[in-house]
Amino acid sequence: MDYILGLLDPETVMIWLHGDAGAGKSTIAQTLAELCSRQRLLLAAFFFSRTDADRSTHTGFVATIAYQLAIAIPELRQLITAAVELDPSIFRRSLETQMNSLVIGPIRSLKADSQLRMTPGLIVVDGLDECSDPQSQSDLIRLLIHTAQVCEFKILVSSRAETVIKATFNSQSVGPVSSQLALDHKFHPDVDIHNYLESVFANIKATHPQARDYIPSRWPGDEIIEQLVRTASGQFIYVAIVASYISSLCHDPIERLEVILGLHPGLAEKDLPFANLDALYRHVLSIISEENVKDVLRILGLLIVGDDKRWNLSFISQIAQLLSLKPAKIEMLLAPLASIVNVTQRDDGKIVKIAHASLGDFLLDEKRSRHFYIDRSKFFGEMALLCLANIQNLDQSYGGKLFESLPWCFRQ
Question: Given 242, 273, 304, which residue is the final one in a domain?
Answer without folding.
Answer: 273
